[in-house]
Structures are given as C-alpha cells and as structure tokens.
Amino acid sequence: MSLDAARERPSSSFLYNPQIRGLFWQAVLIIIVGFLGYEAVINAATNMRARGIPTDFSFWDRVASFDINLTLISYSATSTYGRAFLVGLLNTLLVAVIGVVFATVLGFFIGIARLSKNFVVAKLASFYVEIMRNTPLLLQLLFIYNAVLKPLPNPRDSISFGAGFYLNNRGLVMPDPQFAPGAGFILAAGLAGIVGSILYKIYAKRRQAQTGEILPVARVSAALILLPPLMAYFLAGQPVSFEMPFLRGFNFVGGVRVLPEFVALVLGLSIYTAAFIAEIVRAGILAVSHGQTEAAQSLGLSRSQTLKLVIIPQAQRVIVPPLTNQFLALTKNSSLAVFIGYPDLVQVFAGTVLNQTGAAVQVIAITMAVYLVISLITAFIMNLYNRRMALVER
Amino acid sequence: MSLYLRSDEAPTLPPPVRGGGAIGWLKDNIFSGWVSGPLALASLALIIWITPDLIRFYILDAIWTADDGAACRVQGTGACWAFVDRKLDFFRYGSYPVAEHWRVDLVLMVGTVLSARLLWPEGKKSAFGLFAFLVGIPLFIFLMIPGPAAIISAPGLELAILAGGIALACVLEFSKLRTLWVGLIFFVIYPVVAAYLLKGSPLLGLIQVDTNLWGGIFLSLLVATIGIVFSLPAGILLALGRRSELPAVRFFSILYIEFVRGVPFITVLFMANTMLPLFVPDNWSPDRLLRPIIGFALFAAAYMAEEVRGGLQAIPKGQSEGAMALGLSYWQRMRLIVLPQALTLVIPGIVNIFISLFKDTTLVAIVGIFDFLRAIDAARIDPVWSGPTVSPTVYTFAAAFYFLFCFGMSRYSQMMEERLSAGRRR
What we know:
The structure holds 2 protein chains of 2 kinds. By secondary structure, chain A is an alpha+beta fold. Chain A contains 13 helices and 8 strands.
C-alpha cells in the first residue's frame, strides 16, 4: 500500500520510477551487447576475408586425408572431415563412458573407506583424496603417460598377465573374442536372466510384505543372471572363441590392442574424478542425521541393512546432483586427450581438422556445441531422475 | 494388502562385547567386522610394501648433485634431483633473460608482501605472527624464488630486494595503512608497475622482454593471479545479474554462465587464441600471452558466479527487505547487507574454485604458453639428462609444487571459515 503510494507520489519525477529505470538499464545493456556482437561479426568477416579463411561449412564433405589410430566406425584417409568429426566424437564418448563407470566405482569405494571407523583405511583413503584433488589433472595424465606407460618394455619383453593379456609400451594387448553364429543365444539367455531377476525381486518384495519372510534376492539374482548364459554357451556348442595374440617379429599379431593413450586417459580421468566423487559420497552419507542410524539400530537392523535400507536411500538425494556435475566435468576433462595424443573430438576436430582447413570459427563453434549438447542432455536426464527421487521421498 | 506383523517375541541378544586396552582398541578401530579386517590388513600391507620403495627411490638412492645425466642413468639409482637443481632457473623464469631475473623477483616479492597483508588481516597480533609477516614471508620468497644461485651471481641486487620486501612489510604494518588502501595499491597501482617492470620500457631504462620469453612458475602464478583476481568481482556481478529482476540482465547472465560452464576449458582457450584476434579490428589484436589470460578470466568468472549465487540464495529475503525498509539503494543493500553474508557462507566453495583454477592454469600450455608444467615437460626431454628416472622426478617435483599451493589454500579457507563464522557459533 505505502509502497504504491510512494511510487505514485506526484512530486517524484519519472526518473525515479523503478520500472522506467529498469527498462532504461536493460535497453543500455542490450545496446552494448548488440553493438559488441555486431562489431565482432563485422570484424570477423573482414578479418577472415583478408586472411583467406573459409567462412562456410563446405569443408565438411571434403576428403580429410589424414589417419586416426583409433576408430570405432570405418574410417580411412579418404573419408570426409564430417566422418573424422564422427570418429572423434565417438572416441570422446567412449572415454567418457568408461571413465565415468570406473570413477564412480572407485569413488564410492574410497568415499565409504574415508568414513570407515578403521583408522588405517580411513587415513589411507583421505591421503589419496588430498593428493589427487590438490594436483592438476594434466600433471597426473602426463605422469601416467610419460613416466609410467612409456617406459614399459617393448613388445618383445612384454609384461604377461597370463590368459593372453600383455602390457608393453605400445599398449595393452588382449585376446579378441570371435563370435560364431550361435552366439546370439548367449545374449538372449543373459537378457532373460536379467528379466527373471527383476521379476524375482518384485516377487520377493511382495512376499516380504505379506509374510515377513526375507528371500535371498542377491544370491538368486546372481545365479539367474550368470547361469543361463553359461548354459547357453555350452548348449549352443561353445560359439565364442578367443583369438590369442602372439609375438611375431617386433610386435604382436592378432588379439585386440588398447592404445596406451587410451589407457592413460581412462586411468587418469577416473582416479582424478574418483577423489571428487569420494568427497561427494562422504558428504552425502554424513548429511543423513545420526538419529537415522540409531533408530535403525534400535529397530534391530544389522549394519549392512542400516546402510542399505536407511542411509543410502537418503544419501542418494544429496549425492546425485553433484555427482552429475562430476560426470560432466569428466566428459569435459576428456578433452585433455589432446595433450597425450588420444584422438578425441578436440584432438581430431579442433586440432587436425582446424589446422588443415583453417575454418577456426566454424570448427570451434561445432566443438563447443557438441559439449553443450552433451551437458544439456545429461542435465535433462538427471533432472528426470531427481524428480523421481523426490517423489519417493513422500 | 495385508502386512506382516511379528507375533512372537524376538530372543534377547547378549550385550556387545567391548574389550579394553590396546587389543580392544585395535579390535574396535582396525579389525572390526569381516570386511574391514582384511581391508585393514591389505592397507597395512600396501603401506609396508610401498613406503620403503618410495623412501629408497626419492631419498636414499637419489642423485642429488651431478653435472649431466650419466650418474642418473646408472641402473638402480633413484630420483634424479640433480636434474631439478640444474633446471631450477628454467622452471622458475622460463626463458626470461638471466640478467633481468631481478625484475621478476621484485614483482613477486612486492606482490607476495601486499597479498599477505590483505590475506592475513589479524594473524599478526602475536609476536610470532608479526615476525612471520615482517621477516618470514620476504625471506621465504627470497629463498624460494631467486634461490642461492641468483644470490651468488648478483648478491647486491637480490639482497636489496629482500631488504626492500622487509621494509615494505614494515611500512604496511606500522603506518596503520587501512586495508582498503592496501587493496587499492594491490589491485590498481601494483599491476601497472609490475606490467611495465616485467615487459620493460625504454623510458625506465629497462630493456624490453618479449612475452614469448616469459615462462615457468612465475608465469603460472601470473596467469593464476590475474584470473583469480578478475574472477571474483566479475563472478559477483554475474551472480547478481542472474538473480536480477530485470529480464534482459538475467537472460544475458544465464546465457553466459551456462555457455561457459558447458564447454571444456580447452575449447575456451582455443576460442581465445584463434577467434579473439578475428573479433577485434586488426590493429587491436591482443598479445599472444594476453589472449589465454583473457580466456582464463572469462572462464573463471562463470564458475565463480555459480558459487556466489549459491551464497546469495542462502540469505533470507528478510535481510534484503529489512535493508530496503531502511531506505538503502540496490547497490547499498548488496554491498552492505547481502554480499558480506553471502560471501562468508561460500568461502569454502570460492577457495575450491581458486584451487581448481590454479590447477587449470596448466592447460594454457595448449596454446603455446610456457607455464610451469610446460617448462617441466620441455626440460624433461633434454638429451643431456635423458634417463628413466628423470620423468618421475620432475613430475613429482611439479606435483609437490602444486600440492603445496592447493593444500595451503584449502587450509587457509578452513581458517578463514572458522574466523568468519564466529558470529554464527553458539
């Protein structure tokens, strides 16, 4: 009331009207931003023309004429730049997905270890976290790549892990699985096992609600998931065979070779991010008030039951949003691949393609757009997940 | 749905056994449970297995002095600290001309004393604190940065810089100069003077040193300081913009913050390096070193903005409304009421961002800037020193350097957090 009266006071000039002032400052901002944007575009056009830099996307369909040493889809030096972009993007996603899995597993393990009542375990975990969080990721990557993987012996003196796994300075060599026609059955049996275990879990839950009997869900699920594929493997006449790598001359023939750059990048990204995930997990568990634990214990729940049924479901809500940020950070950090020569999106596209075509503005814009889209998709999925978690709460 | 209820009484369990003494403590804290026991044993085994090897490699078998890599190449020797010792000047100054090193030392000395005065407002009350501030910090910089070699080569000049540092600390301490003025000196006068001193200027009688030659620890600190100093005010403005009631301001703030946070720092650097010169008229094209610094500052601001926003959201609306009722303007409300409370709340987050920014300075190497890590990586492949132990040694040295800074920052933030939360403690 009084505020409105003050606003409409006849003596006050329109200069003091907050709405008009707001409009004025916004107009100023828009004009400044618009002017800067306009200037940038005009300057860019002039400069690019003067330096003979292409301004369109015609390079996309031209022949790339360079090789990439890790390709998930068919690619050769005669493929187009567009194809090279796709190869780089897939390599980035490959590293990101594998890195996220490793980092999460390791991070949860270390985060819980930090909370352990066990003095030695807790100290060791916190030592790990402090070292990893307080040194640059790039330094860790270079250390792993240049000081650990590069000095490994050459293929002739490879370190053998048995079962056809060899580690040398050209990477990790392992057996290549070969699928004969019957292999589809194994996959089908595995899927059936997973569906069966889900159905069994639903049944066990219902049964517990009715009779109080607790069925051994974990053991039965493990059996349901593992046994059918195993049986299918033997019934279909062992359709999967392994092509073993063997040494011929100076290098290995056969088998699959994982690039040392890939090993270094996955290792570096996951041990670095794991330290941050560990802190998130620890904070999430600590955020559940101690009364919850005490209440669960006084109800007679065992330690593992308390953790599984009371603490983790509540901690999850605190953990998931920052965890998503870490996943995104890992994906973005995978661009450090360029320092050790792993052919990811930045190395292939914003590196080689940019240098060959000179189309700086287009290439950088596309690269940035890719990461933005990945961020947005992840944020969207995680929002859906968060919403579901929030509903469970009530 | 009928739910199960237990009808018979559960048997009474015996009370938990709790042993006393050393064995009881071990049982409770180290070997409790069937997961933790083996885990503890495994951890202990790991420590026992790895520690002697580390001590042997880094200390007992290490080569401390040598003229070239021959001694380090001998089979079975440990870390090659002699290499680090020999290359220390390169790690500290990059290719900055040796005769001009004193300029870098002077800039670092003055900067450290000034920032120590700003960062350590009340720590000097004790006699020890006073001594540390007046003598300890200048001496530390003196020993860390120029090092004994420079003192031997140019004793007068370097000792003069040490004396100057102590004198400056005394002036700052005893003249009762207000923190605001120290801040003005640090943020306005010092950068200009430092820039002229480092770059050189014929007017001052100093030879020009091209930014191509700048490098090493000094350049890393320079990039980090500029980025950090710029990011805080810019981040605060962006955070305020994001919470503004004016839709255009809010829109641009959100657009900027989300865009920068959604892309990797490397692409921002690429953009600053290749696109920035295209966006400005040809004769305005920024210096080779300035481009990544601009990119770094812009990148830092977006992350800082999100952290500050977290603090702003935690302040109850009543604070702002109360200030409004007192007749304070928007900027007065923010400056006097909201921001002091909001920033105090997010100090740990802000320092975490400082730490990650400091670590991110290593990435500027991608656009050809010779920062500390790049200097390390370039020195590593020197054929005179090449040997199997050189890489682990220099990388460990670099890790120790970054760890010291980052860990120090996180401890400082914990101290400040405690001090500033005194008002909220009950």
